[in-house]
Specification:
Bound molecules: guanosine-5'-triphosphate
CATH class: Alpha Beta
Largest sheet: 9 strands, mixed
Distance between the termini: 28 Å
Order of helices and strands: EHEHEEHEHEEEEHHEHE
Strand content: 15-25%
CATH topology: Carbamate kinase
Number of domains: 1
CATH architecture: 3-Layer(aba) Sandwich
Number of strands: 11
Helix content: 25-40%
Structural class: alpha/beta
Shape: globular
Length: 237
């Protein structure tokens, strides 16, 4: 196995569901510990790690029909802050240095997001966890991930999912679903593949940031991705 990582600075997008473990709601500490172990492995390789985390394990705004989108989105953003603090805690327990930066100012619990500070933290080897999405309603955490990746000049977006990559239909529901090894941004949009929303993809198009969609459930996959091994689905221009 090669030891030198292909990517020096990455943006890892974790969905809130990645933190569930076996449960239906909240934070599964075994799941968090597994993620932390993988992050520690790549951190030792000298990879600069930024993370955008979702909040769907705590609150899923879009599914609450009784609520308007704006308050629901703000509640979702607060859920991402809870997840960010949980991830920070497990990483720091392992001796890693981390900073949570929030897009919504809440100075008592996290630093406010300042791009130049975020880059400084990364250069100093701190894991930076971006919380509260973009800070604005109507934007997904995938859009926050592509925005932050662009701002910090990440070389790649690693999008962790429950399946091995992007399929033509939901592989958890359809046995004959076919996986794509490679896709262009335009194919994602034209085929209406539900990998990231159009706002997120259009940011990737404008800034030419590749995305690897991969299965977080397979141990070692984050390391494989940073080494440039063929896993999941690669989406490029
Ligand atoms: P360098 O100056 O690059 O070494 O970065 P630093 O983050 O160590 O500097 P600083 O002295 O600003 O921060 C020390 C600690 O305070 C770190 O744990 C920061 O995360 C934390 N910190 C800094 N600003 C804030 C803030 O606005 N809110 C909260 N809650 N913590 C902060």
């Amino acid at each position: 196995m090669k030891n030198k990582p292909k990517y020096k600075r990455i943006l890892l997008k974790l969905s809130g569901e990645a933190l569930l473990g076996g449960g239906k709601f909240g934070i599964g500490y075994r799941a968090l510990a597994n993620i932390a172990q993988e992050l520690e492995d790549i951190h030792k390789l000298g990879v600069e790690i930024a993370i955008v985390i979702g909040g769907g394990n705590i609150f899923r705004g879009g599914t609450v029909k009784e609520m308007d989108r704006v308050p629901a989105d703000y509640m979702g953003m607060l859920a991402t802050v809870i997840n960010a603090l949980a991830l920070q805690e497990v990483l720091e327990k392992r001796g890693m240095h981390t900073r949570v930066m929030s897009a919504i100012e809440m100075k008592e619990i996290a630093e406010p997001y300042i791009r130049r500070r975020a880059i400084r933290h990364l250069e100093k080897g701190r894991v930076v966890i971006f919380a509260a999405g973009t800070g604005s309603p109507f934007f997904t955490t995938d859009t926050a991930a592509t925005l932050r990746a662009t701002e910090i000049n990440a070389q790649i977006i690693l999008k962790a999912t429950k399946v091995d990559g992007v399929y033509d239909s939901d592989p958890l529901k359809f046995k004959d679903a076919t996986k794509f090894d490679r896709l262009t941004y335009m194919e994602v949009l034209e085929k209406h593949l539900k990998v990231m929303d159009a706002t997120a993809i259009s940011l990737c198009i404008d800034h030419n940031i590749p995305i690897i969609v991969f299965n977080l459930g397979i141990k070692g996959n984050i390391r494989r991705a940073v080494h440039g091994e063929n896993i999941g689905t690669v989406i490029k221009g």
